[in-house]
Amino acid sequence: MSIYVSEPGRPLGTRLPAVFRNRPVGDVTEMAESAAISTDHSEATDAEFQQAAHSGGGNSRRRQQALQEYGTAAGGESLEQRAYLPVSEICSPAAYSVPASVSVSEAITHMENNGVHHLVVLADDNVAGLIDLRWLLTWLHEHTSEAIHKSLTNIELPAFLTASPETDAHQLARLMLAHHLNAALVVDAQGKPEGIVTSTDYLKLYANVSRQEGEV
Q1: What are the tens digits of pLDDT across the range 53-66?
Q2: What burial class does residue 185 get, using C-beta atoms within 10 Å of its C-beta: 0-12 exposed, 13-18 middle, 19+ buried?
Q3: DSSP string spanning 99-161?
Q4: How far apart are the first and last CA of the chain?
Q5: Measured distance CA(96)–CA(98) in Å, rounded
Q6: What are 88-134's pLDDT values in tens digits?
Q7: Which of 22, 55, 70, 166 has the highest CB neighbour number within 10 Å of its CB?
């Protein structure tokens, strides 16, 4: 499955793409890259990785060639240089959510009571948004003091990324950077929240890798 971005909007009904709904963002050419992407291979999307991973049947050579092309397109590196890492291995469970009807104040209180910084917003049990504490505090700073009592239903919530548990974590990290988002929502095949991956998860991952390599 591809990685998708849901544009800013009010939490009315589902804001998931319909595959999930909204435009796919699997093409790395949409991002501002600090290093050039190799033009020797096609720009493979995460969906194409899933196809590549299961292509060729018993033809392992064809399968390996497809995976090799995906690895180069997605990260500018070969499979020998960069191992596939499903995002499900680093994300945290999406354990906390609120209905879209709650107020900004109630959402902040829910975060504080549970020691979390991100909440899934639901509208009739459908994913309608992903919000974080920093965004809520910034939004409050830009509005009047009465805004804290406003329902999330009447607020344009920020854009958010969605991905499947099998999504390549490295590819997702690059898209989070490109869209200036510090979290992404992991959803299952039925579009139900399964996990949240944040910039902190990536910092822990890379810090652990560096420690193992003796660089920290």
Answers
A1: 444 444 455 445 44
A2: buried
A3: ETTSBHHHHHHHHHHHT-SEEEEEETTEEEEEEEHHHHHHHHHTS-GGGGGSBGGGS-BPPEE
A4: 35
A5: 7
A6: 999 999 999 999 999 999 999 999 999 999 999 999 989 999 999 99
A7: 70
